[in-house]
Fold this protein.
Amino acid sequence: MKYLNEFRDARLVSNAMAEIRSATTRPWVLMEICGGQTHAIKRYGLDQLLPAEIELVHGPGCPVCVTSLELIDKALAIAELPHVIFTSYGDMLRVPGTGKDLFTVRAAGGDVRVVYSPLDAVKIALQNPDRQVVFFAIGFETTAPANAMSVLQAKSLGITNFSLLVSHVRVPPAMHAILGSPENRVQGFLAAGHVCTVMGYWEYSAIAERYHVPITVTGFEPLDISQGILMTVRQLESGTYTVENGYPRLVTFNGNRSAQAVINQIFRSCDRKWRGIGMIPDSGWCLKPEFQDYDAELRFQVDQIQPEESPLCIAGQILQGIKKPHQCLAFGEECSPEHPLGATMVSSEGACSAYFKYG
Amino acid sequence: MCLGVPGKIVEIYEVGELRMGKIDFGGVTREACLAYVPEARIGDYAIIHVGFALNLISEQEAQETLDLFKEIFGP
């Protein structure tokens, strides 16, 4: 496939690694924001090819992992309602809520359906006018254009039995939270390439400047990740801290303006609680008041929720780059992809699942 | 979740007011919404995420990146 094979070329990657080795004179800690990058790093063994001085820690860019337990419990309560068709990306189904997950609800007779796109959920609403169709709108900036468009589409088709359970999160506030923490170890960032495809990278200059960290917009293929690391290490070695674009075939400074326009039409900034991390001010998107009719949290009264996390799970520290998955006592024992205690073990972007799968 | 897959736009059409297209992912074809890439033409490559094209892939930038790597890292 064009634009995949060339960027997975083993010879170019190993040359890139040699270049990283020759650029590195001191230890550095880099964080890749996105869980998709974490999985690529483990899958291709890129961390094994890096010089010993370079440590990669894994960021919170896994929407399934950071969706708060309260919201997952709300999703479970809504999905159990008899007149509801609950639609979701497949990754969410096995994420543990308090005592159960969406698979459990489905097994008990709940109508829980996996969709590929939120527009599929709108179609289901159109085909089932006597049922309430709820879409679990999780995700970072990458997913927001699709979720926002589903609301516009429902509105333009006059569909009233469709709503979103919104759990949108944004990357820059999470970077502030990580860098502002007294436990922070991160010295440079690989920014998430597809978030920046939508949003551009103008927002990141203030972060680089404030915390003196270089930030490189980075793609997802082995060569992209190697390039992102190389560009970041070169900045660290020379003592500079600017934002650079290592993914120019997709990312521009301003991003996709028409996608941003629709996001801004539908969503407003709001505080958001991140699973394992806690409340981060202004770190999420919620529906604007004029689109409240599409807000599942307002449509369904399911407030009597008492969320309870597993006492063993250290996902929060993992998501902030403070600990690695194998430092968890439950890793591979009480906690595995078949029986996850935390969301980081479930998702195809979760750090624990990457360590479990690829070692 | 943020994984995007590159694909080639092989067909463009409207469904209601929405610009849609057929995307070829190396043999597998799926529908995607093209509302956010109004400049897209048949034959362009785009990155597709949850059924939406997020942006077109710049062939020139892709080639420049590859050339840069080849240049830096030898033949």
User: Anything to note?
Assistant: The mean pLDDT of chain A is 94. DSSP finds 16 helices and eleven strands in chain A. The two ends of chain A are 27 Å apart (CA to CA). Residues 340 and 346 of chain A are 6 Å apart (CA to CA).
